[in-house]
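User: Fold this; tokens only.

Assistant: Input:
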Amino acid sequence: MTRQRVLPQTVYLTALAKKSIVQAAESALPRETGGILLGYRLPSAVVVTKAHEVVDRDATPTSYTSDGSLIQAALDELSPGEPPKTGFVGPWHAHPADSPHSSIDMQALKRITRQYSEPIVSVVAVRTVDGYRLDAHVARKVRATRVRHLKAKIIEGFPRQLIEGEQPKAR
């Protein structure tokens, strides 16, 4: 009998990460933009500490494609100054229109997730009349050909103990 691994249902996002995503999305209008999320994983949550833009010069108002070599270059550049447990936790991109993850976005998430043993987060910054709303999904490889995913709850900021890698205690 195989034990099913837990799929985190919560994404903690720092104010810095959200600010980076929203500023990049605003600057790219009317086109989509995107990039990488840095952070770390806990048993029941993924903590996103930073978001870094990776520009797609061919982006359109309805399309953003990430370039693997540009993503790797961004990771190489950012990694040395990060805390030891910090690393790539997933991609993000922005939709200039009020639409959450598309079927194409979900297929991309599944494709990325198949490359990792740990959960991967995908965040889409959705432009609304009131600014931006963040839509998150978390996925994990179950088998080589099967990926399990679910819509995740985003919590902006996080308790101090999460910075030290501990789960918050229930009150």
